[in-house]
Design brief:
This protein has 229 residues and is mainly alpha-helical. It has nine helices and two strands; from the N terminus they run αααββαααααα. The longest helix is centred in the C-terminal third of the chain and has 31 residues. Strand 1 and strand 2 form a beta hairpin. Helix 4 packs across helix 7.
């Protein structure tokens, strides 16, 4: 287990959430690797907390698909599989197609400006080469599109899928993404929405997601090769 774990304290969050975010970041950054055991006693000692918030944080990680519990072995960092990736992105692809079609009908000057601002924030994050910020601003850009649909039930479904998507998005941005291609794709999505061109935006969104799938698939294969050695 990595020796670099340190608790990122936040006075406004319950301790279990602080532990959860610390472990989550370590998993997403690859500091805690797939298959690595999450031993409550060791983590509690390492982070200077009791076992209770560790146990609660691990349960939260399981809900996000970042950890699994193996009978008689305990919790460990979950691996990523190509099947999981394909399942998640298949759902995301269908939701994105519905979202952009609806957004083309609903977009107005105010929401267009909000989307432009989200795109600018993403470009700033790219220039700063801050992976976590790139992931978060990319996510926010898409969240604005979902918001434009004016369909709360759609937004809720997407929110439930978000945590399963986050790890794949982070993996893509961390090692495999062509940032300038991402910027260009965002610009094309914005342009298509402004012109209310449903077919064009659907096509760009498919390409956007397909590029992500290719990048993460390569990362998963490299990960699995590393675990076999």
């Amino acid at each position: 287990m990595t020796d670099d774990l340190t608790l990122n304290m936040d006075a406004f969050l319950p301790l279990r959430d602080v532990v959860f975010h610390t472990l989550r970041d370590a998993i997403l950054k690859g500091e805690l690797k797939p298959g690595e055991r999450l031993m409550e006693m060791h983590l509690a000692e390492k982070l200077g907390v009791s076992r209770t918030p560790i146990r609660e944080a691990i349960r939260m990680l399981e809900q996000e698909g970042l950890a699994i519990t193996i009978p008689r072995k305990g919790a460990q960092v979950a691996g990523m599989t190509e099947k999981d990736l394909e399942d998640v992105l298949e759902i995301r692809d269908a939701l994105d197609e519905l979202s952009v079609a609806r957004a083309c009908e609903k977009i107005n000057e105010k929401s267009s400006q909000e989307l432009e601002k989200a795109m600018d924030e993403f470009e700033i994050a790219v220039k700063e080469n801050d992976v976590r910020k790139i992931v978060e601003t990319d996510e926010h850009f898409h969240d604005v599109i979902y918001k434009i649909t004016d369909n709360p039930k759609l937004v809720n479904i997407v929110s439930n899928l978000r945590e399963q998507m986050y790890r794949y998005r982070y993996e893509y941005v961390k090692d495999n993404a062509d940032y300038q291609t991402l910027v260009s794709e965002h610009e094309k999505i914005l342009d298509g929405l402004k012109r209310r061109d449903k077919d064009y935006v659907k096509q760009i969104m498919h390409i956007h997601l397909e590029n992500q799938m290719k990048g993460v698939r390569a990362a998963i294969r490299n990960q699995n090769q590393g675990m076999e050695k």
